[in-house]
Fold each of these.
Amino acid sequence: MTPNRSILTNRSVLNSDQFRRALSRIAHEILERNGGAGEIVLIGIHTRGAPLARRLSRLIGEFEGLSPPVGTLDVGLYRDDLASGAKPLMRPSHVPGSIEGKVAVLVDDVLYTGRTIRAAMDALTDFGRPKQIQLAALVDRGHRELPIRPDYVGKNLPTSRDEEVRVHTSETDGLDEVVLVTRTPR
Amino acid sequence: MTQAVESLAARRHVLDLDDFSRSEIEAVLDNAAAMKEVLQRDIRKVPALRGKSIVTLFLEASTRTRVSFEQAGKILSADVINVTGGGSSTEKGESLYNTALTLQAMNADVIVIRHPHSGAPHYLARHLAPSIINAGDGCHAHPTQALLDLYTIREKLGRIDGVTVAIVGDILYSRVARSNLWGLTKMGANVVLCAPPTLLPPDFIDGARMDETHPFASVRIETKVELALEGADVVLALRIQKERQKAGHLPSLREYSRMYGITSSRLEEASPGALVMHPGPMNEGVEIDPEVAHGARSVIEDQVTNGVAVRMALLYGLPSPARAGR
């Protein structure tokens, strides 16, 4: 970013309490929509989706006495932009047991263009045929490029394309917080 | 994605490990771990390299390396075309350059080459647009074998740094030993090389590497196998080719076997739980006893499986030729 330098301003859009409440609400909504936790598998998308999926499983366990199994998915091999740019580092995917006939809830931190979710659906169906795939995102920042919509949203956050949404989780960053980073040209 | 992702270095060719940094090796091994998960799925196919062409050009015999590259490319959805010396225009006397130029004209994105002459892959990399992967050139280098050996050590022992690796056999002619020397020393392993003095590179005998700044300065040389194996965490046996006896390097294979063969009793000198590795193909009963090759400490079959994962990680990491400025 050296050619046009810009000033970065950070604005907190979810503090740790709001973060926690948003996840609790999503957990309740998942239970309500699916009539319990019996058929649910939570699939977190690397990197920040993974701790969020584990958190949702724990919350559902607290509410229902049954924690749904949690998996993680790296969608690197399924991306549609592999022809351009450096290849990202990957982590092994892990899908617990069979997802055949289950309700798989994909969990991601930020929903943006929808391309990651498209890749995640392709990746997931290589592991089996779930009865249904649902989508939970902590933040929906708009600007979809594909016909994809979330089933559960922590916060709808209107953004411009040159802004950046950073999700910090206590597991990965030591703090639960969502920050909106705005660039203003100098 | 909103978060900055760590990514692989944009590497166009894989010719040897001498130009890999430690962090780049670690990145390849990390990605290989993710590839290994793909190998364990019911459906072993991912779309990452859809529409890409990989040509394996093997002008020297090979089973596992060639099949391993073919398998790796196919699991990543690339089209893999195999060319060997016999049955190709090489038999009619076509030069390596012209053969490779033809493959380039047919839009090969990656050429995986094995060649009896050291430096052949480097030569192609200098003159052609596709990415070149060295699958073994003469006595020079075999970087993908070294990477799969590193991966296997890390997978089984949890680390490479501080691990003692004894490489026993035909060091003088071994491209596996050379690439492993680069890889192991960069990753912080203690390397012990063991061979009859006639099969050690002169550099290692005449003290040229005694300078502390030499990358192999810390490498220990032993001509007695019992001393080399003492405390080793990994024993890597190399194949002894029958031709060495003809060339006068060895009195006989039987004598080599008696003096240097890896046997159960010699293995007792190594650390408890030491790994036994071999790049294959093995001459059982010469450099390694069948009982050891197929024994509890042998990870020779794991090496083969890991080879596919490591080659997938390398193929995936290469930039698209369009970006490489074709």
Note: The interface with chain A takes residues 1-3, 5-10, 27, 30-31, 33-38, 41-43, 45-49, 76, 316-317, 319-320, 322-323 of chain B (CB under 8 Å).
Amino acid sequence: MNDLRDLALWRQFAAVAGCAVVAVVAVPAFGSDFVIAFGFQFVTWIVLALSWGLFSGNTGYASFGHGVFFGIGTYAAAAVFRHSDAPFVVALLVAGLAAGALALVVGLAVFASSRFSGDLFGLITLAMAFIVVTVVSNVAFLDGGTGVFVREHVVGSWAGSSTRHLFVIAVGLAVLTAGVAIATSSTRWGAALRSIRDDEQVAESLGVPTYRYKVLTFVVSAALAGLAGAPQAIYLGYVEVGAVFSLNIPLLVIMMTILGGITRWWGPLIGAASVVILREALLDLGSPELSQIILGGALVVVIALLPHGVSGAIPRRWGTRRRTPALEGGAR
Amino acid sequence: MSLLRCRGVTKRFGGVKALSEVDLEVAAGEIVGLVGPNGSGKTTLLSTIAGSLPVTAGTIEFDGRDITRASAHRRAHAGIARTFQVPRPLGSFTVEENVATASMFGRHATGRAAALDRARDVLKAVGLAAHAGHAVDSLTLHERKFLEIARAVALDPALILLDEVLGGLNPSEAALGMELIASLRERGMAVIYIEHNVRAVSTLADRMYVLNQGQNLADGTPADVLNDPRVIEAYLGGPVDA
């Protein structure tokens, strides 16, 4: 992987890590409980948007299943807490593995046929959501229809003691996700994914093993969302199918990514920030319906004015022509 | 020993038989012209060789190995490159990135920097060096067609499948294209070359195959094939003074 010798990639990663350290030190030290809780949700959305962009943004295969992977992670962690005294790290790993395993099974099956590319892929991920919800609702080990109280199981454990810890964990996951996103910006991996988005048949003819790249990236994207589910389980305190697998989650994630733009790895990050802050600001209006309408309107305006999202509208270097380089340029 | 050997290649689309028991052989370093009227199955045959279409029946051997069921990218790694009749550049890649993708993932996969270097060399060879850093939508038709060839060459193939790369070009552009195709043989590549214009093929090809309605109609040297009454019949519907 001589791509990783690229200094620009490491500079970006250092910048992300630096921001993370500042956040981890400053937010719990100076923030109120509200700010920390808000920060936790904010960073979790960033993880979800970045990890969605990793697969769906790069390959153009729009997945409506990202909420499922997040939810599977949440339920997997809740099950670990409920049925064992294992430390948080175990729940975290189980959450990531469970989501990754589901993506592996779905990916191996769905990507095997070119019939399921494009719109059909989106429908299949939607169908997957309904199947998973039904299974979780009926398996007593996971839920069984009553919901799961997580708080009472994690009392006394490190991660369960405060939202500060959850915030630190979420920031750690965001750094990990951003690292993977950076690794797909201007590397061989990224070039493979974007060649799939442009023209999959051409990508194959140029020697790109498209099946392998799609399955691998789908699994990594899902596993990252699954990891984010573990602290979410503790944060929610009570895990319930209707809330955890709400369709609003994948739709918001997609909205964030489109708003932020997919032509650069940090587009989803900008999108997540805009949507979360806008949503919070609109809460003061007192009417959730009105805030939904304004959010939707904002998305329409951005798509109309900035087809490549907010990040795509920012010039790469002063004075250079506007283009979207796939191999170079992402790391700048 | 032949480089490529297709035996009894048959391709059905539903009830339609696009190819029916087609045989074709190509030796290393040979230019083979593949001609036939519209709808005779030329592009379909090319796609089955490149692996973008699975065959219904028959076998395809390349370099002594059975590749009938191999995926398209494996065939690219094995040394088969193709171009598309209507150019299909990767739209979000620059010209040189399009070519570099083939070097990065092709037969002798390289890192990004080496791939870009190699891409610039190939672009120079096809006369597109000045466009290296440009977006592909700035290219004219003939530049797009040459980009198709450049991408295929960057795979460093043993066999290159050209699908009407001269179609739609003006005479001076077509002449450049002919030189380019001849230079592929000098680089040691075998070429299967589909062309509508039979005369253009006959000047370059060592041998020719004629397909008609998805079946082998004739093959041999250009002179033999062009004088074959069956070929004249297929093209003109009967002996006519043209």
Note: Chain A touches chain B at residues 2-3, 6, 186-188, 191-192, 194-195, 197-199, 201-211, 263, 321, 323-328 (CB under 8 Å).
